[in-house]
Amino acid sequence: MTPQPKPGSASKLAASSTATPLDVAATIDTTTGTRDDLTPTQRKNAAATVTYLTRKAQAGYLDYPTALKNGWHIATGIIEGACRHLIADRMDITGARWKLPSAEAILQLRALHANGDFNDYWTYHLTQEQQRNHPTHNAIPQAA
User: Fold this and answer.
1) Contacts of 109 by beta carbon, 8 Å cutoff, 6+ apart
2) Which of 49, 70, 80, 140 lies deepest, with the highest CB count within 10 Å?
3) Measured in whole angstroms, how far is the alpha carbon of residue 59 from the centre of its chain?
């Protein structure tokens, strides 16, 4: 049976808009020490979570108020949606088999298209191909 969070626990604190990752880590650390219904594995996982949150917060990676103030996305839904759109919708076609080089090439083209950069890329690609295949045609003629 998985222990349920107690009132005032880290899960409630994490839901608070004013809680920092260090607050959550401290609450997990304190709560874990006072609970006797946790298995050794659960205690180990809680300690690992405290270490992770503390290190990331001290390194500046979990500064959510600043991220929100700057308009940066912090939710994973946006990332998951982009992954589904760019990757899963193409790679998960029934019966499709992909090797890494061809899958990577298709995903790069899909990303260019999704970002609106495909036309610029294609112009660059054609220029590079022309120079590679016909190097003498690209030379500037010298006047006699």
Assistant:
1) 118
2) 49
3) 18
Distances (CA, A) of 80 to 87, 93, 107: 10, 18, 15
Q: How many residues does the chain have?
A: 144
Q: Which two tokens stand for residue 6?
A: 């107690």
Whole-structure pTM over 0.90, yes or no? no
- DSSP per-residue string spanning 20-62: -HHHHHHHHHHHHHH-SS--HHHHHHHHHHHHHHHHHHHTTTT
Q: Which amino acid is at 114?
A: A
Question: How far apart are the C-alpha atoms of 110 and 132, rounded to whole Å?
Answer: 25
Distant-in-sequence contacts of 60-68, Cβ < 8 A, 24+ apart:
62/20, 62/21, 64/21
pLDDT, tens only, 64-111: 778 888 888 777 777 788 888 888 888 888 888 889 999 999 999 999
